[in-house]
Amino acid sequence: MRIVIETMLNIEGIRGSSRGEFFVRDRDFKDDPNFAVAVVAYQWIQQQWRESGCRDMIIEMVTWNEENDITEGVKQIRPVVKV
Question: Is 69 within 8 Å of 33 (Cβ atoms)?
């Protein structure tokens, strides 16, 4: 399944928004769509963090397909998913 993820991140006081299209496995999506998308979003946020030089980052908002807010779900993944 293809989904659009949008993030609003605060990197050392500078707020920025990013949007991208990603693939989520259909099986994972059917089991728990918000968690499946949150895992993909978390991995993408980790990539953005590395590209920013590993500076302090606050996740302010994460949505998928413009209507599903998964911000808290993404924040909860941090201790569970190792990237």
Answer: no
